[in-house]
Amino acid sequence: MKVAVLVKQTPQLSEVTMSGDGPKWPGGADVVNPFDEYAVEEAIRFKENYGATAVAVTYGGADVVSALRDVLALGIDEAVHIESDSYSATDPQNTARVLAACIKKLGDVDLVLTGKQACDDDSAMVAFAVAANLDWPQIGFVKKFDKVDDSKITAWRTTDSGYDVVETPFPAVCSVVKEINEPRLPSLKGKMKARKAEIKKFSLADLDIEHDRTTEIKNIQTPPERSQGEILQGESDEVVDKLIEKLKADQLI
User: Fold this and answer.
1) Which domains, from first to last, does the chain contain?
2) Helix 126-134 vs helix 92-106: angle between axes, to the nearest 10 degrees?
3) How far from 150 is each of 25, 52, 226, CA to CA, in Å?
């Protein structure tokens, strides 16, 4: 079994600020997208529990290599860098096309894992768009993998009211939520090994694909400030009556 985990490098959210012109991204080093850490951990568990080969794939400029070395230090077997200066962190559709082309190029991939979303654009689109480009089945927002064999996998998919138990054949694409596991920390041995590890590189030409920007950000604004809530005064029965009247007036009940 071969498991490919898709990794994105994102800014430190604590250092992102907002102004009238939109978000101001920090100038320091980026980190592995926090939601992807759970997908990485799950890929390593597939390696440990089912003898899978775990491959990390990322797309971007030269600076994203640090994210690959971070996940190699955790126990990922191989790393692939799709290198392109035309990469846009806020164009999930084009990113999905490129990542899907890389998965095809790698060959023999049984399962693609991703985090549920990236913390910089919050689109939660890439996993599903990758599945569409590959024409593979997908399960989103997985909280648990239950049964795994050579031909199919059973997963618990998070819903608004609980979860669904879904079975799908391989190959498949799954995004995972943070409830699925607790990501591990790298060991010193892992860090030393990751520093020397070879990272396979592909260009867009190697994948026989061209950059085709499909998403354009027109404007980003902070949400409008919410008006201050009203506190109802009086005895309990009196407050309940006032609340009911207000809810009726606002046509909420």
Assistant:
1) 2-202 (3.40.50.620)
2) 50
3) 44, 11, 52
CB 148 within 8 A of CB 48: no
The amino acid at residue 187 is S
pTM of the model: 0.83
d(CA 227, CA 230): 9
Least Cα distance to 153 among 136, 125, 178, 174 occurs for: 174
pLDDT, tens digit, for every residue of 151-199? 999 999 999 989 999 999 999 999 999 999 999 999 999 999 999 999 9
pLDDT band (50, 70, 90) for residue 31: confident
Tell me the C-alpha distance between 20 and 220, whole Å: 9
SS (H, E, C) the chain: CEEEEECCEECCHHHCEEECCEEECCCCCCEECCCHHHHHHHHHHHHHHHCCEEEEEEEECHHHHHHHHHHHHHCCCEEEEEECCCCCCCCHHHHHHHHHHHHHHHCCCCEEEEECCCCCCCCCCHHHHHHHHHCCCEEEEEEEEEEECCCEEEEEEEECCEEEEEEEECCEEEEECHHHCCCCCCCHHHHHHHHHCCCEEECCCCCCCCCCCCCCCCCCCCCCCCCCCCCCCCCHHHHHHHHHHHHHHCCCC
As a whole number of angstroms, the distance between CA 235 and CA 238 comes to 5
**pLDDT tens sequence across 83-118:** 998 888 778 899 999 999 999 999 999 999 999 999
Q: Which amino acid, residue 33?
A: N
